[in-house]
What we know:
By secondary structure, the protein is an alpha/beta fold. The chain has 2 domains: 8-135, Response regulator (Rossmann fold, 3-Layer(aba) Sandwich); 145-201, Arc Repressor Mutant, subunit A (Orthogonal Bundle). Helices cover 56% and strands 12% of the residues. It contains 10 helices and 5 strands, in the order βαβαβαβαβαααααα. The two termini are 44 Å apart. Residues 9-123 form the Response regulatory domain. Residues 139-204 form the HTH luxR-type domain. One of its GO terms (molecular function) is DNA binding.
Amino acid sequence: MSLIPKKGTVYVVDDDEAVRDSLQWLLEGKDYRVRCFDSAESFLSRYDPREVACLIADIRMDGMTGLELQNRLLEKHSPLPIVFITGHGDVPMAVDTMKKGAMDFIQKPFNEAQLLDLVERMLDRARAAFSEYQLAADRDALLAKLTTRESQVLERIVAGRLNKQIADDLGISIKTVEAHRANIMEKLNANTVADLLKIALGQNAIKA
């Protein structure tokens, strides 16, 4: 049997040791994997976006605040769902975090049942977000295999240009365009032009 809990990872970022200990005890008792940090800076240095996880963070902390931490994660396009712990006077600030995508906020002293419900909903969202994040990462890895010229050819294929038009655009022969197309199909593991478009356009192609 695996020693790692299967429910998911919960990051706790709070500069109050008593709060960290309380949350760790509560969440580990429900079979979550808990990783605690006493500052936003230490969390950011250890955070792995490839992990299915969620974040519980205090709004007011020494050093980087919870709001600043949220902004930093937004800059990194992190898929990590966030819930903030607030004091009574921080509610307007917490509302602002929700406008930026936080799932919710809980006030101290927090209700355990409410917190556990939030964690489960965050991890549900994290699993869905991680799946999308992984698809995007896989797509980027495939596209990174292309040479500059192949990327130029692909861009024109996506735009619906014919081989002769692509050849004229780039000042190369039609045979060279055909060779680039074959290389692109092979590198992107695409069997059809439809496959190629799905990879090149990502979610936009699927939605279309």
